[in-house]
Amino acid sequence: MNRRDSIKYIATGTLASGVLLTGCDWAEKEEAVVKSLWKYKYGRTPKEIEYDNHLLSQQFFSQEEMAMIIQLGHFILPANEVGNIEKAEVPDFIEFMAKDFPDFQEPLKEGLTALNQRALTEFNLSFVKAEKKQKQQLIDPIAYPDTVTEEFLQQSEFFTLMRNLVVTGYFTSEVGLKDLGYQGNQPNVWDGVPNDILDEHQMEYDPKWTAHFLDIEKRNDVAQWDDQGNLIS
Predict the structure, then answer these.
(1) Do 231 and 118 share a domain, yes or no?
(2) Domain membership of residue 213 as a residue range
(3) Confidence at residue 11, expressed as pLDDT on a 0 to 100 scale
(4) CB 134 within 8 A of CB 125
């Protein structure tokens, strides 16, 4: 499964269920989110590639907003020995999603503005320039939807959207898949049902068949059958 397919299944499940989508039913939501599948070109028609390139040529977030997105992303998914959100190109992913899915634009823009305004009000600093502890104080009231107060309800919805985008972007990237320990399809060897299981069920292999089916050296051979369905080799 490539990254575009990964985002399709994650976005139409976890992501779409937690965002602020207005004026459309579920079928429209799903179609819109599935279309928003990042900049990779595999499986894309020339027209779709042209559309992606058109979006990639534009800039939606300001430089300060992108800095806020990066800092929020590090709070949501701190860097580890495998990598970080920037190595996984998560900020670029969020920029692209905002352009490709217009229903994200207002919640993200307004959420960033409101968060920055709270930083100015409480600390007389922009969010980007605030200290780490101050940023944490701003994030804590909006990070936990189950306990958020009415005052921070809209900000909490913004943070949920941001968290879903960060997590989706990260864990569908090469860095994120490595972080998960995903190995992909690997060659394997099967040497039959273990003897203890065979004994438990009072069964055994016919020796004349094991030479054909359980010979590891022949695992890549294509079986040959006669017209009556009997195994030849």
Answers:
(1) no
(2) 190-233
(3) 46
(4) yes
Distance CA 142, CA 155 (A): 6
In DSSP terms, 231 is beta-bridged to 225
185 part of a folded domain: no
**194 and 176 in a common domain:** no
Dihedral pair phi/psi, residue 231, rounded to 5°: -70, 125
pLDDT class of 42 with cuts at 50, 70, 90:
low
Whole-model pTM: value is 0.64
State pLDDT tens for residues 151-185. 999 999 999 999 999 998 898 888 888 888 877 76
Together in a domain, 57 and 159: yes
| Residue from 6, 88, 12, 11 nearest 43 by CA | 6
Structure tokens, 12: 């139409």
Same domain, residue pair 166 and 57: yes
Identify how many contiguous H helices and E strands the chain contains and give both numbers.
12, 0
**pLDDT tens across 108-122, in order?**
999 999 999 999 999
Phi and psi (nearest 5°) for 225?
Answer: -125, 150
Q: What are the structure tokens assigned to 92, written together?
A: 């670029």
In terms of Cα–Cα distance, which of 180, 167, 187 is closest to 75?
167
